[in-house]
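REQUEST ID: PR-0412
SUBMITTED BY: lab tech R.K.
PRIORITY: routine
TASK: structure prediction, single protein chain
INPUT:
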Amino acid sequence: MIDGDLDGGSAELAALTDGRLPRDEDEPGSNVYFKAGSSGGRFRMDFGTPIEIAQVNTYSWHPSSRGPQLYKLYAADESNPNFNLDPKRGIDPASCGWKLIALVSTLPEAGEMGGQYAASVSVSGKHQYLLFDIYVTELYDNWGNTFYSEIDVIRK
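STATUS: complete
OUTPUT:
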């Protein structure tokens, strides 16, 4: 975790890579999500050494506004002399050695936001770290933090 607080009912970050998906659309303890009323947060994956990544797949599921995904994905290694391993919110990761890979939004253009969502991002090059900068999907109430179920990093 780089910045932000997980909700008290959220699973730990390790649930994102355990290979298990929730069995129901509203299983807080099987999903990772930030504290109610917060604006999301940032977390990092560390592979220990640079690896060749082909794609990153993210999955989420909820019956309402916590279903869609909205995040920026960054990648890095430690080769940049200005590298900051833990850029807090308010610091642009691109200014401290991180490369923006994608802005991911599975927000529907209209209608209900509930359901199952999946996003797949193609990644090129070797990277030791991935940074997920997670945003809320709506601001109408305190319940806009997505229920992230799983993240799969596929090696090339």
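NOTES: The two ends are 26 Å apart (CA to CA).
REVIEWED BY: pending
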